[in-house]
Amino acid sequence: MYIQRVKNERPFEYFEIISRIPRASGNEGEIANYLLSFADKHNLYAIKDEANNVLIVKNATQGRENEPSIMLQAHTDMVAEKNKETIHDFSKDPIELIQEGNILRANNTTLGADDGFGVAIMLSILEDESISHPKIECLFTSSEEIGLVGASKFDYSQLTAKRMVNLDSAEENSVIIGCCGGIRTELTLPVKREKGVFNGYKITIGGLCGGHSGEDIDKNRLNAHILMGKILSKLKSEIAFNISYISGGDKDNAIPRECECVIIADKEIDGGEINDYARSFLKASEDNELCVKIEKTTTSQRILDDDTDKIIKVLLVDNGVLEYRKAAPILPRLSRNLARIRTNENNISIGFSSRCYEESGLKESVEFLNSLANEIGGDTYHHEKYPGWQSPASSPLVTSWQGAYEKVSGEKTEATLIHAGLECGIISAGIKDLEAISVGCNVHDLHTPQETMEIKSMDKIYDTVVEFLKNI
To answer: Residue 263: enclosing H or E segment and its boundaries?
Structure first.
């Protein structure tokens, strides 16, 4: 396809190009090699490290050689989510783009605007010889969506820039000056099983919106696992049953949209009553397509009573926003997302992601999950921890961006924080006295197959980056 009705064609052409390159988190080799070939074609210095991070450097335009350099930064990977019935292999299939007026979306998969728009803008800047700018160091990092992995492995001694613009935010009229830190937890619960042939029911939750586990965590969207816990708890108060199998969610940084559980019960289950009960928890209009399906089935194993109760206990854990900030902006301070659950041969594994601006909040969530695991006889493994970050709202970088945005759009933009992880924290730890901001175009429903990007907004942000570079 060719994206229509845009002022700046080249960034969208690059967006189409990279959308044809498989780049799910952990599979960035091909996009990294593309970036190297791009740099070679345009006679630009470039290096790739073992983590598939790529640095491309463009020298200052004439007359600006003595100015301090500037870093532009984005991540090359994307969250690979699709609707359950969609046939799509993220390891080899291109993203099928669909334009609907000013909206760009994908065909029942994530779009990859997070962070494809940033990559596309940076490539266009690097290519364009008409733009005035100081020395630009473009850093393309890998595996951001699975714990900011690439950024944590890059050698920052290779950079000269002390100023950085991260192109990975999803609201055009905000300039981000701070983000929360995060940590992921794997809780493993050993379970005992009995083999046999059992009659039971398969309960399937679907139709939920899901979303970004940081930016959307305060939008009252249902978590499929937590809802399954409520349904199982209600059934447990009425009938005896054992769990045979449970599975749901995929990515730790996405609110789970689907969950299925097979239970062994002799008593009939009223599907209509369960559907009504599930819908009683609806708070967000985006979840109105919620459907709970109950089918009779047979299964070859059942998890024993005590372990069934322990699984339900985990599914009823405090989830979502646990505490709000007391100072403006009033955003979630501490949140937790029960993201993923799997039935394995000898255990049930449950993935959580916790977010907080302060180290103390992350420690609080870790201690809570440790205590929960200890209570039920499970184990926890905490990993992929990353720091929070905050810059002053009065920094010269902020005011320069605000001035460029106002000149391009005629509108003002406010400095604010975000309840999500950004690579600014890790990179700031690697570069002493780094001044950083994060900006971006309007992207909606990140980390879901409903992800969309506003075309005119990306057009506007590209113009703002160009204006910013001219006058910084």
So the answer is: strand 259-264
